[in-house]
């Protein structure tokens, strides 16, 4: 990074510029820092003689650098992207020489997957060249995504990708197949196809991704380059503090140090007295016995009550009226049950309130919901959001405000490393996907050929699941038949016929409930009788209604348990029924556990003589292991789930209903280590 020059503006779009990262044909790129401290790559576009095309928002993909926003001011038109500290491919090859062939294959497979996501969305990148490919520990990142062109030429992207991979393998950019004489044999045919003079004969991005493979994992770079990348990543120039102006107020992300009643707003009106109480606590069986265990100090003596009326708020951001409303309502009710119980005991050193914001499963609404909760200084922790679609949008707001977030049902964040205040209270989507091969391998008759259907209508979720399945299947014993469905596919008959033509005896589908139902119907109509698996994304009454009898026998893996059927949840379901007059919805028991874990962290903070603050509670949560009703909750240094599991739970459609089969054997990746 070069220092700023006197001609460079100090701020653009409210973001403070820290240094120059480089300059290309479309603009000059700076390292910048948002008001909340998030590092950004901010590009000020050159002023061409013609009108600058409006930026597009690219689809989510782990190898596409996210576009975070843009605008125009006196300093020009600018675009902000997530900052990637790694070197460009051009810089890496110049400094360390051509890359090993396996590294190039992984590079090509992941970049092809990123281009396939753009092409499926009707976009063409237009410039996948070595200067636009950034290297990270878990895979490459394709930059300049806001310049992708609607209706562009996908075949031109493939040509550029072939030249980029040729450069990575040889140190020079080939222009046609004749320039590939020194390319390793294992890459030669693929690159020759990419450079075919006839655009119609070039492979699609999806075909390339399937041919080259590649899963985002650490260890893909050669050791010298990996070491240099690690050193660069550890250097964090955006963390240099910016002096606060004299007399400035505390940032919105800081809770008040004084927990007196006048500094904490009153909680919303609660509904108390409706729980069946016995002996001061709810009578539930099991290891997570409700009541006094939480409310005692380490020496076993009861915790003293705090100042009368001192209140703190737990926030809930949930989809309560959108596509994941069942999961959102389950979390809302489970958290409500826990807080009513804890307030009812009266021996906590504080009072508890719940602030609920419905984001309807929509990213703009999620940003507003997160901003509202983050701006309330009484909100110490937020539980949520509900779904992957809004996860990054909300996490970015909370990270900027320093708000701890405990997420229960969102399985994946596109840029997880950017959100250290986020604690992942469940195994990630990839770990859930890895549970499917374990289930198939333990069947009475393990399948010999597995069809893996990646439905791009489910975006990242389907991609992560199907990639995980593909990486875990033992290819020496089991053949894999991968299929990619473009977003919006409604006729599943061709893919069903193709799967049957390959003789598959098991099918894994990565998409949503409506697509799973279409696939179930198409497979039945084609006369197929085998084992079919899908994920939590399809575990929805929509599947039962749309698939009908064709859905019988389908199995699903999910991160939420069934509080009605899981014996480990003890008496949770009866108490839930008495309180809400209905059976527990998905993630109700998980919401209960999360709320109690948060309150445990709050209590330990107070017992150790500290005032409650967001940073203090986040620190306690990171070091805490909470043995809840559903699964032990614990986190690793990155905030990801690190408990012993279960990695997932298994369900099967029987007689038109989802039947709970119990935990999937095995542990999530890294659990318990």
Automatic annotation (TrEMBL):
Region (Disordered): 230-273
UniProt keyword Signal, yes or no: yes
Binding site for ATP: 43
UniProt keyword Iron present: no
Organism domain of life: Bacteria
Transmembrane segments: none
Keywords assigned by UniProt, alphabetized: ATP-binding, Nucleotide-binding, Signal
Protein kinase domain mapped to chain residues: 15-218
Family: Belongs to the leucine-binding protein family.
Name of the protein in question: ABC transporter substrate-binding protein
Species name: Streptomyces carpaticus
């Amino acid at each position: 990074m070069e220092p700023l020059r006197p001609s460079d503006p100090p701020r653009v779009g409210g973001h403070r510029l820290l240094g120059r990262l480089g300059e290309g044909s479309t603009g000059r790129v700076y390292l910048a820092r948002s008001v909340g401290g998030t590092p950004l790559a901010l590009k000020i576009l050159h002023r061409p003689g013609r009108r600058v095309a409006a930026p597009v928002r690219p689809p989510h993909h782990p190898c596409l650098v996210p576009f975070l926003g843009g605008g125009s001011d006196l300093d020009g038109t600018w675009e902000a992207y997530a900052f990637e500290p790694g070197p460009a491919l051009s810089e890496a090859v110049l400094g360390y020489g051509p890359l090993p062939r396996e590294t190039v294959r992984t590079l090509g497979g992941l970049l092809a997957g990123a281009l396939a996501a753009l092409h499926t969305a009707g976009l063409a990148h237009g410039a996948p060249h070595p200067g636009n490919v950034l290297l990270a520990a878990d895979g490459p990142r394709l930059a300049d995504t806001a310049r992708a062109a609607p209706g562009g030429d996908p075949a031109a992207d493939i040509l550029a990708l072939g030249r980029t991979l040729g450069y990575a393998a040889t140190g020079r950019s080939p222009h046609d197949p004749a320039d590939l004489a020194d390319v390793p044999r294992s890459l030669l045919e693929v690159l020759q196809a990419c450079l075919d003079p006839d655009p119609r004969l070039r492979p699609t991005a999806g075909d390339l991704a399937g041919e080259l493979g590649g899963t985002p994992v650490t260890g893909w770079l050669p050791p010298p380059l990996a070491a240099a990348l690690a050193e660069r990543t550890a250097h964090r120039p955006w963390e240099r503090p910016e002096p606060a102006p004299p007399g400035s107020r505390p940032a919105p992300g800081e809770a008040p140090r004084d927990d007196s009643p006048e500094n904490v707003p009153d909680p919303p009106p609660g509904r108390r007295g409706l729980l069946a109480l016995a002996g001061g606590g709810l009578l539930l069986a099991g290891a997570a016995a409700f009541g006094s265990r939480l409310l005692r100090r380490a020496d076993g003596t009861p915790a003293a009550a705090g100042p009368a009326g001192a209140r703190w708020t737990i926030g809930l951001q949930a989809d309560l009226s959108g596509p994941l409303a069942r999961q959102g309502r389950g979390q809302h009710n489970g958290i409500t049950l826990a807080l009513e119980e804890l307030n009812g005991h009266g021996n906590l050193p504080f009072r508890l309130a719940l602030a609920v914001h419905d984001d309807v499963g929509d990213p703009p609404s999620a940003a507003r919901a997160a901003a509202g909760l983050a701006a309330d200084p009484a909100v110490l922790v937020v539980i949520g959001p509900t779904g992957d679609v809004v996860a990054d949008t909300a996490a970015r707001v909370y990270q900027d405000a320093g708000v701890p977030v405990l997420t229960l049902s969102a399985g994946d964040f596109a840029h997880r490393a950017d959100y250290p205040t986020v604690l992942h209270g469940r195994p990630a989507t990839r770990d859930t996907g890895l549970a499917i091969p374990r289930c198939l391998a333990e069947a009475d008759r393990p399948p010999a050929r597995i069809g893996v259907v990646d439905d791009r209508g489910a975006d990242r979720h389907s991609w992560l699941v199907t990639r995980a399945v593909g990486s875990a299947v033992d290819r020496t014993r089991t053949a894999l038949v991968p299929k990619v469905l473009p977003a919006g596919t409604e006729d599943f008959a061709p893919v069903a016929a193709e799967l049957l033509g390959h003789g598959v005896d098991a099918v894994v589908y990565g998409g949503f409930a409506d697509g799973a139902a279409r696939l179930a119907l198409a497979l039945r109509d084609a006369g197929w009788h085998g084992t079919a698996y899908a994920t939590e994304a399809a575990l929805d009454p929509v599947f039962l209604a749309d698939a009908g009898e064709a859905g019988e026998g389908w199995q699903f893996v999910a991160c939420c348990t069934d509080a009605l059927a899981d014996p480990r949840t003890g008496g949770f379901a009866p108490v839930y029924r008495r309180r809400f007059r209905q059976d527990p919805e998905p993630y109700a028991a998980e919401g209960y556990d999360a709320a109690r874990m948060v309150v445990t962290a709050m209590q330990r903070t107070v017992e150790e003589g500290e005032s409650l603050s967001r940073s203090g509670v986040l620190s306690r949560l990171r070091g805490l292991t909470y043995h809840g009703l559903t699964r032990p909750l614990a986190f690793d240094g990155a905030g990801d789930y690190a408990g012993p599991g279960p990695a997932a739970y298994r369900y099967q459609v029987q007689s038109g209903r989802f039947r709970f089969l119990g935990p999937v054997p095995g542990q999530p990746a890294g659990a318990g280590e």
